[in-house]
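Good day; I would like, with your permission, to put a structural problem before you. What I wish to show you is a protein chain and, alongside it, a tokenised description of its three-dimensional fold. Please examine both parts with care and let me know of anything in them that strikes you as inconsistent. Thank you for your consideration; the sequence and its tokens are set out here:

***
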Amino acid sequence: MGFQVEAYQQALPLKSVFRIARGAKTQADVVVVTLTDGVYTGWGESVPYARYQESVQSVLEQIDQTAKSLATFEGDLSGVRARINAMPSGAARNVMDCALWDLVAKSQQKSVAQLLSLSTPAPCVTAQTLSIDTPEAMAAAAKALGHPPLIKVKLDNQDIVKKMQAIHLASPESQFIVDANEGWSIDDLKACGDNLKALNVILIEQPLPVGDDAGLIDYSCPVPLCADESCHTREELAYLKGRYDAVNIKLDKTGGLTEAYALAQEAQVMGFEIMLGCMVGSSLAMAPISLLSDCAKYVDLDGPLLIKTDRENGFAIKDGVMQPLNPALWGYPQSQVIL
């Protein structure tokens, strides 16, 4: 029989319009995969991202090509792993990799954390995200969050300091991550760095376009800088050294938990701080990466808070604190699920 794959698209409506520097969206278009060996079934979710030349259709096509070959494997988990690892990094490999980890946890009667020798997941602070709007609207949105410990602020290069001043005034005890999504120039960064530090900004994420960051080598920014779009896998780390202080690890960039775990380990050895990030998706998309929270200085896994209806057994997030993964969702054998 071999391994059987089912892949399908889901549209997850958002609570409100979500705006970043390069556009806006009202729903998350995700791909869900179930992978079965005939006895056990694992599943996963990924988010195809147009910025990386992906679409739902292109991801489904990649999955279909791999699925055909997996049907010839009879109980050969190592062969399945090798075939998935051979896929290009991105959303297709991510959802296949995470579905496989879930299947292995069930078939081997060990949690994914145990399989990777990771510490038992614990509650952690996660950023909560503000999308781009007017200073007044962003301040109101920040206030509505109830003064959480960490807020992530999406900003283009319009009124950077003015917007942050309004947000800081609305939530003065919070710390902030500013995410430019490649929307600034080096002059924008230099003009606002000192002001942002004074406004409790503790990290600036991807200020400059990918490949246009040579100016960071000789610039000592008052606020630590994090590579997001510039960092997909371990291959970029040598280039990023000397330009960025931290790397944002996302499953849809690495191509799944396997590479994300390896990237986190190597990045730490090279002196980078670790940030865990996500695309806008459900708790199923956050589940695998949440297992790495113990090694991360910054966690930004609030995707489930942005969609109208999350998965059953999804993450509990209250006052900026994210509870550990529910064993009934992903990554645990059924014997460890308490009903």
In short: Residues 124-335 form a domain with the TIM Barrel fold (CATH 3.20.20.120). The chain is about 35% helix and 20% strand. Residues 238 and 270 are 9 Å apart (CA to CA). The chain has a mean pLDDT of 95.
